[in-house]
Amino acid sequence: MSALDQTLAALADPHRRRTIELLAQRPRAAGELARALDLSPSAMSRHLKTLRQGGLVEETHPEFDARVRVYALRPEPMVHLLRWLEESERLWSAQLLAFKAHIESGG
């Protein structure tokens, strides 16, 4: 599975997309994310694992408590996704313009 495929798979779930939205504001502890999304700690852990595997988030531990996990966004996967979307938009725009020209010329 390519990195882009992993990113898209990780973003397929609405809870994970909401997690990304929350982390875009600031890094957050796993427990805080679980409470904000009204998820059990184990469900949140599974979602965070998927986001980590997709490369979208990174995990750190504060020096004062190694049991606490703090998550932050990694920008690289989103940059690759944005590039892919821009290329897809260019392709579709060219295809639609060609189709429009074909229709307007009487096809």
TrEMBL record:
Signal peptide start-end: none
Parts forming coiled coils: none
Gene3D superfamilies hit by this protein: Winged helix-like DNA-binding domain superfamily/Winged helix DNA-binding domain (1.10.10.10)
All copies of domain HTH arsR-type, residue ranges: 1-93
UniProt-listed SUPFAM superfamilies: Winged helix' DNA-binding domain
UniProt xrefs under Pfam families: HTH_5 (PF01022)
Example of a GO MF term: DNA-binding transcription factor activity
SMART domains: HTH_ARSR
Protein name in the entry: Transcriptional regulator
Organism: Phenylobacterium kunshanense
